[in-house]
Specification:
mainly beta, five-stranded antiparallel beta sheet, four-stranded antiparallel beta sheet
Length: 135
């Protein structure tokens, strides 16, 4: 997903995740690249989805723990954006999909997103990775 573009202004440079453990806080680090100055402040979401596409854990908020709104980003600047999600203690073992996206808080409208290959994502969310929850 590195190189995915959100609207015309923001690119996902890279990401990293810690090992997911049910009942604990899970760290997801996103690294954004402002290729142009964003005109609005966007809220970032990360969703962990089960095999049925249901959200089992999520985090929404402005980048930088709500301290670094996207309108403040400068072109060429890499922005570190750490996210922490509380994983349910009863999270069943299996495969889960981690997705990311951005939206305008005022309207809930998601930004269009194109994956690194230039394919527009119909649901305006970018699949980042599949994670495994062990026994």
């Amino acid at each position: 997903p590195a190189g995915a573009r959100f609207s015309d202004t923001i690119v996902l440079d890279s990401f990293a995740v810690s090992d997911p453990v049910p009942g604990e806080v899970w760290q997801v680090d996103l690294f954004w690249d402002a290729v142009a100055a964003p005109a609005d402040d966007y809220t970032v979401f990360v969703h962990l989805l089960d095999a049925d596409g249901q959200i089992v854990a999520a985090h929404d908020g402005m980048p930088g723990e709500n301290r670094f709104p996207t309108r403040a980003w400068k072109p060429g600047q890499i922005v570190s954006d750490g996210r922490q999600m509380n994983l349910p203690a009863d999270l069943a073992p299996g495969s889960y999909q981690l997705n990311v996206g951005m939206y305008l808080l005022e309207t809930g409208e998601r930004l269009p997103v194109w994956d690194a290959g230039g394919v527009e994502q119909s649901d305006r969310t970018l699949p980042l990775t599949t994670v495994e929850i062990g026994e």
